[in-house]
């Protein structure tokens, strides 16, 4: 059974008003825009079966190569619809006005999407990546039977949460809350808490920078290039520290430490607590270094579907401020327990997608 939060995520949808590109209209009068609901967890190419019949009578001759744009920005088809909306519409636009194109695919800007199978394998590959991050291997996904793989995809396509969770449970990716409880019980019988491995959470972070002279986010200029959106694909480690709740703020701090330089890092806070308990600082530093090296080694083996930046290249710490954090259309308080966020707001491929808007000083280096 899924949680109430998961149910809302699966049922979430963006009202879309889709216009056909003017250059592809061959009849008069021009067709009115199509009004449909785009599932937050879905992908734009999967809407083709609804959109194509609506516009088919007015299209020019040629082969369909479908793509979408928002205010002239070609939309990356492998980013979930809800994530695209959250990062590009800081002031939510309802309905969301998109333009659909059936010709002149911008191959220099977008990777090809030839069919539904392309989207399916992108989804499966993301699931493999998430499994590798969580378990250290993806053999359960690789060994999934064809019927289970088909049912997993069909349940995703049809928005059937229970069917999807039933198949997904066979992959033994676990729930972070349950995993944490198990690890705490195990750690109780171990000689040192350092032997307990932290939970590793698959996270994709999208960071958009806004210049400081914009006083209201609704006045922010539209994104005209993907160079203005930074992307971090990196696991977040939840350390087992009794008495301290690992929050959403802590998670973002591990990914964007330069924005929280005036606050102690998670490792520094852990070291302080351990020192109070009589632990040596050197042992703590070595333990943290080993964890960091292991995380880096694994991250290098993962295949990213977007151009990835390093945390330090996203934005300079000088006069930079987090103005907005949005997950599944929600702007949660940063003090909320991260385990709750992961359990309730992750996408079906087990990645947590976080959108962040950062206010930066004029003249400061922009995110690439």
Walk me through the structure.
By secondary structure, this protein is α+β, with helices and mostly antiparallel strands. It has three domains: 4-101, Ubiquitin-like (UB roll) (Roll), CATH 3.10.20; 116-173, Orthogonal Bundle (Serum Albumin, Chain A, Domain 1), CATH 1.10.246.190; 194-267 and 302-360, Phosphatidylinositol 3-kinase Catalytic Subunit, Chain A, domain 1 (Ubiquitin-like (UB roll), Roll), CATH 3.10.20.90. It has 13 helices and eleven strands. The protein has helices spanning 4-11, 48-55, 81-88, 116-135, 139-142, 146-158, 161-168, 176-187, 248-255, 266-276, 281-301, 311-314, 338-345, and strands spanning 13-20, 34-39, 67-70, 73-74, 96-101, 199-201, 203-211, 229-233, 236-238, 321-326, 352-360. Mean pLDDT is 83; it is low at 177-194 and 266-306. It is found in: Cytoplasm.
Keywords:
Serum Albumin, Chain A, Domain 1, 11 strands, alpha+beta, Ubiquitin-like (UB roll), 13 helices, 3 domains, 368 residues, globular, five-stranded mixed beta sheet, single chain
């Amino acid at each position: 059974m899924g949680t109430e939060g998961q149910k809302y995520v699966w049922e979430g949808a963006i009202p879309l008003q889709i216009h056909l590109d003017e250059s592809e209209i061959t009849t008069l009068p021009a067709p009115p825009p199509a009004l449909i609901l785009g599932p937050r967890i879905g992908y734009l190419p999967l809407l083709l079966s609804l959109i194509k019949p609506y516009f088919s009578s007015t299209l020019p001759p040629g082969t369909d190569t479908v793509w979408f744009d928002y205010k002239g920005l070609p939309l990356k088809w492998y980013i979930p619809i809800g994530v695209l909306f959250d990062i590009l519409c800081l002031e939510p636009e309802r309905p969301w006005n998109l333009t659909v194109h059936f010709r002149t695919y911008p191959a220099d800007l977008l990777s090809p999407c030839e069919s539904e199978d392309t989207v399916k394998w992108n989804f499966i590959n993301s699931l493999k990546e998430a499994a590798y991050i969580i378990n250290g291997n993806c053999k359960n996904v690789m060994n999934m039977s064809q019927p289970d793989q088909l049912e997993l995809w069909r349940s995703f396509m049809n928005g059937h949460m229970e069917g999807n969770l039933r198949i997904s449970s066979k992959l033994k990716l676990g729930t972070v809350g349950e995993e944490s409880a198990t690890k705490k019980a195990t750690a109780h019988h171990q000689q040192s808490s350092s032997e307990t491995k932290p939970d590793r959470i698959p996270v994709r972070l999208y960071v958009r920078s806004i210049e400081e002279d914009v006083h209201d986010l609704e006045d922010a200029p539209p994104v005209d290039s993907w160079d203005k959106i930074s992307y971090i694909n990196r696991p977040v480690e939840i350390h087992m520290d009794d008495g301290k709740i690992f929050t959403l703020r802590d998670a973002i701090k591990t990914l964007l430490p330069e924005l929280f330089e005036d606050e102690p890092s998670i490792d520094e806070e852990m070291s302080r607590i351990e020192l109070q308990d009589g632990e040596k600082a050197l042992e703590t530093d070595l333990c943290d270094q080993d964890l960091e090296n292991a995380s880096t080694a694994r991250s290098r083996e993962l295949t990213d579907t977007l151009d990835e930046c390093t945390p330090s290249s996203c934005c300079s710490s000088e006069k930079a401020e987090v103005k907005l954090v949005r997950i599944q259309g929600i702007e949660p308080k940063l003090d909320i327990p991260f385990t709750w966020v992961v359990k309730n707001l992750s996408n079906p491929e087990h990645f947590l997608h976080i959108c962040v808007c950062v206010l930066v000083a004029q003249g400061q280096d922009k995110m690439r």
